[in-house]
Structures are given as structure tokens and as C-alpha cells.
Amino acid sequence: MEILDRCANRTAELCTNYVPAELLVITLEFVATLKQSSFERQCVWAVAFLLFVVVGYYFNKIFLRPMVWIRPHGSVGFLSKDGSLSHEDIIRETVAAKDVGKIPPVFPNGWFQAIKSDDVKSGQVKRLNILGKNWAVYRTSISKEVTVIGTYCPHLGADFSVGGKVVGDCIQCPFHGWMFGGPEGKVQDIPYSNTDKLKFVKLDKKYCVEKWGWVYVWYHIDDTPPQYELPEIERFNNFRLAALSEHVVDCHIEDIPENAADSAHLAFLHKPAMSTNIESSSRFDWVIKHDIKADWKPKAEEGQTHLADAYISDTVYINFFGRRINLLSFLFNIVQVGPGVVHIYVRCCGYVFYIIQTVTPLKPLRQRLHQDFFIPNNFWLFMAKPFITLEIIQIERDIAVWTNKTYPAAPKLTKEERVIANHRRWYRTFYSENSLRLNSSGQLVSPQRKETLDF
């Protein structure tokens, strides 16, 4: 009986996380009834019930739950050159020894994905570390709007994300109780003083919007208002989340979106379909292959110069004893939206799928690459997962290159690769004179700003 009770408790724990509530009630009632049966019958039914739970768990995971593919920093792209080194040593050595090249500024101006909307509850204050700075994110209690601010109070430097409180549509400093709010984040109340002479004091407040389940932040080194808006996705409500992936990549931010213009690498690096290891092949590489063609060009129309289009056709085929047999054809319509957001429309078998890919600088030369995969509401989830897995495998092949490559300021390009130079010219429009660069000592500096000592 004690074993059955433990089994029931563990089953309840699993079911709470992975099984619908109605099924949980039924199973617990079943266990309660089973306790009154003979020992032999209890054993038989307990085994059958455990089998039912295991099958139900995997059915739910495969057929009902979106796939989650989150790889921690260091798990992809760091290749061993010396068998005596630990993986942690390989990571440190790769990052420290990498020749980063003569790189452009590290933080371009534009919209960047910041934090999941669901992770910011009303009245909460959360810490966020992106774009080389610490930020505080909170959702106001009255208007329910998300606000992103520099996390340190302009009074005496207290951290709003550690003890700060949301009071109505304001945020209160945990150190002296100063209250800030309003469209510009100005001081609203000082508990022990008159605020009239300090109305100019305000927070480092950023423009932000909520789209597609995420909070996006507008970053500009000169604090100018947004110069473009994030586009809408047509009939987005007709789609549901099928999977997400997230990787942390040690490279310059420009290395990642530049891939869209580098069509030559597609036919070489991405020829193997089943292996993430670029140093060796899997046993399936000779069977499953890609035939890839691509094109990229920026938009020139007024008001759309922050956009660029790429088109990729990908035919997946098998090599059957030297004979090519086509399996599936994919057409990718890729829209680059500024430096950090990409919308990918995938057409296959009469269906349209969406991928929202974002690159967010965490700090200089370290990027968060996130992808959300959406499928039509009437499409089977389990049918989409194998193809999503193949796409993520190809991304991880790219990551292995990005992590270890340098950034050549003047690459030697063939005439077929002139589009890469065009991409760099387009991407350069997202930098400004004050954009932060890394100096030879690895410090962030702004070429046009002079540092002064004011203490």
C-alpha cells in the first residue's frame, strides 16, 4: 500500500506538469479505488497504470507540446583541439585567443527582442542584461504597460530590480522611496522633499512594444525615437507556436544576419542535413542532401530602407545508389527588419509557416539567437517537428563557424559574392557616429564622445 501511495504521489506530480487537469482527476480517483482491491490486482493495475502514464507523457510531448530547444552558452561551437583540455577550458581559450578583427561598432541602432511578455507580471520588477547594460523591466499595475528603464536610480544609484516596487503606474526606488513615472519617467514624488526643483530628474527609459509574445526594445546610442516600426504578420492569429530554439553565440552581431547574403556557404556548409559537427560527417550525410539556391537585396523605397529581402529555395533529396530522388521543396521568403529581427515565411506542401528569428546583443561579441516557429492551426504538430529539427541543426552548423571566425574588414570576394559587400553597406546604416566600439584594450568607447571627470 505504501508503494502504491508513493506511486500515486509521483504520478500526480508528473501529471500536474504534463497531463490535462481532467485526466489528473480521473487517475487520482482510479488510484483511490484501486487501494481497496487485492494486492495482486493492485500490482497488475499499478504496472498498467504506469505504462499508461509513460505513454501519455510521450504522446503529450510529441503531439501536443511545442518543442523547446535551448542550448546553454558553450554547448555549441566550441571545438576541441587538445584532448587534455576540459570543455570549460576550451570555451575560455577560444574566447580569449580569438582574433576578432577590425570590427564595426558592437551595438547597432534598432529594435531588439528583450524578454517574454509572460515573464513580466503586473506589479513585478525584473532584471534584464542586454546591449551591454543592466535594465529593469516592470509592468504597471493600472495601465498594464511594460516599461524598460536603466536599472540604476539617478538619485544615488540603487538598483530598481532589487527591492524596487511598482506603485500604480510608477516605480519606487528601494533606497529612499523616490517615485518615477509618466511618459518620460520623471520623478513624481520624494517622500521627504518638494519635487518642484527636481522635475528634470528622470530615468533612462526606453521605447518598447509587445509583439508576438515578446517585449521589444528600441535602442539608439543617441536616444532618438524609433525610426521605423516592427511590421505586422498577416493573419498571425491563424498560427500557433510549434517550437522555439535559443543559442548564445560568441561573435560580432553582423556575422549572423550577413548569412542571408552569403549564398555560396549554403551549398557547402549546409550540404549535410543531419549533422551539427562540421569537423566530421554523420552516416546519413551521403543519403539526405540539399539543393539550395539563394538571393538577397535591400529595399530602396522611401520608408523601407530598414528592410531587406532574401529568397532561398531548398530541395531535400536522397541519394539512392547514385540516383537523386526529390523528397520535399521549401521556399523561404526572408525579411530582415533592421539589425536584429528577421521574419521567415516558409512555403511547403501548400502550407505557409512562420519563423521569427531575433539576434539580441547581450554584450560586445556575445549574441542571443532566438527562433520561434509557428505552424497553421490546422497542421499536425508532430509532422512539423522533424523539419524544425533539421533547421536547428543547420543553425548549429553556422554557430560552429561564427564562434571561431574573425571579421575581415576587407574580405576578398568573388564577383558572385558582391552581394555580401552590399549587405555590409546596408547594415552600416544602422550605426551612427557615436555608436560604441571596442578599443584595443577591449573597452567600449564612442569615437565622437569625450570622457570627462566630473567628480
Structure explained in plain terms:
The protein has 455 residues and is α+β, with helices and mostly antiparallel strands. It has 7 helices and 21 strands. It has helices at 2-18, 21-34, 39-64, 87-97, 263-269, 381-404, 418-428, and strands spanning 67-70, 110-116, 125-130, 133-139, 146-150, 165-167, 170-172, 179-181, 186-189, 205-206, 208-211, 214-219, 239-249, 288-298, 307-320, 323-337, 341-348, 351-363, 366-376, 437-438, 444-445. An 8-stranded mixed sheet has the order 1-13-19-18-17-16-15-14. A 4-stranded antiparallel sheet has the order 3-4-5-10, with no helix packed on it. A hairpin with a 2-residue loop joins strand 6 and strand 7. The model has no long low-confidence stretch (mean pLDDT 86).
Give me the secondary-structure topology.
Layout: H1 2-18, H2 21-34, H3 39-64, E1 67-70, H4 87-97, E2 110-116, E3 125-130, E4 133-139, E5 146-150, E6 165-167, E7 170-172, E8 179-181, E9 186-189, E10 205-206, E11 208-211, E12 214-219, E13 239-249, H5 263-269, E14 288-298, E15 307-320, E16 323-337, E17 341-348, E18 351-363, E19 366-376, H6 381-404, H7 418-428, E20 437-438, E21 444-445
Parallel strand pairs: 1-13
Antiparallel strand pairs: 2-12, 3-4, 4-5, 5-10, 6-7, 7-8, 8-9, 11-12, 13-19, 14-15, 15-16, 16-17, 17-18, 18-19, 20-21
The number of helical elements comes to 7
Secondary-structure class: alpha+beta
Report the count of strand segments.
21
Distance between the termini: 73 Å
Average pLDDT score: 86
Name the poorly predicted regions: none
The helix/strand series, from N terminus to C terminus, equals HHHEHEEEEEEEEEEEEHEEEEEEHHEE
